[in-house]
Amino acid sequence: MTGPGRLTGYAHGGGCACKIPPGELEEAVRGLTGQAGGDILVGLDDGDDAAAVRVGEDLAVLATADFFTPVVDDPYDWGRIAAANALSDVYAMGGRPVVAVNLVGWPREVLPLEMLTEVLRGGQAVAAQAGCPVIGGHTVDDPEPKYGMAVTGVADPARLLRNDAARPGVALTLTKPIGVGLLNNRHKQTGQVFDEAVAAMVELNAGAAEAAVAAGATAATDVTGFGLLGHLHKLCRASGVAAVLDAAAVPVLDGARDALGDGYISGGTRRNLEWVRPQLRVGAGVGEEELLLLADAQTSGGLLVAGEVPGYPVIGELVAGNGIEVRL
């Protein structure tokens, strides 16, 4: 093989569809929650985006890790997407990434190392854009390629964005359109490239996080593998609130509804919907396809913020009670 080549045959549509289904994952970590510590601000208990530990009066350290199999065929783009996705967990906490290390699984007898170089180059490019140096990593021989990062960040402990700090009476804001899972799945099966989807996935959530903190938001999460409905459910459950979601207000990538109508729905998306369905109250005119779109498994999605964030669309509101009402 000459040149780095492409990841055709390895790209997994469905936006992080390789994640363990949410219900199974929660059961697996159930016995690990409740770890005490006076300086642990955010731990395992509510499934937040990153851990937060106070190390000073005005300083918390954030820690997170994320990696996955390819979602696109281009190795450089995969590296960029995976890096943006890993960095997003720090932004979702209202923090700033300060250092990262690479996490790599590579089938060295199947894919050339030149291709791995392209993946790492893509990751480094996005990390550099974030002002976050990549200073090392760990690599294992793996039958299937995997790439991501462990990221360390910092934040003001008094201004953390947490998923257990939402309150009734505030708007819900979403900072990126949904639908990348459907487009990635179409890409996997047809080879068609969707530049808008790639652009959305490599876009950093840095500006959105800064705007959310500046607007006084206290709760947020990023929308990734469990879909908009799944991550909204986790935020509501952790905060003890309910949500009213205006499906018509949710921004959607061009082509995603066509992919939905043509059946490019991942197994991960279907599992997301089945997991959250008991929490839903579905209004008139909201069909199964609309729910599948709202459950679409995302990769490097936007921030879902409890509060209005200037410049980004409001998609609903938080109210007292429990569950999610979906209406048009």
Automatic annotation (TrEMBL):
Mg(2+) binds at D49, D89, D222. Coiled coil: none annotated. It catalyses: hydrogenselenide + ATP + H2O = selenophosphate + AMP + phosphate + 2 H(+). The active site is at C16. Residues 168-300 form the PurM-like C-terminal domain. Residues 47-155 form the PurM-like N-terminal domain. Keywords: ATP-binding, Kinase, Magnesium, Metal-binding, Nucleotide-binding, Selenium, Transferase. Its cofactor is Mg(2+). Binds 1 Mg(2+) ion per monomer. ATP binds at K19, D46, G47, D48, D66, D89, G137, H138, T139. Its EC number is 2.7.9.3. InterPro entries: PurM-like_C_dom (IPR010918), PurM-like_C_sf (IPR036676), PurM-like_N (IPR016188), PurM-like_N_sf (IPR036921), SelD_I (IPR023061), SPS/SelD (IPR004536). Homodimer. Synthesizes selenophosphate from selenide and ATP. Belongs to the selenophosphate synthase 1 family. Class I subfamily. This is Selenide, water dikinase.
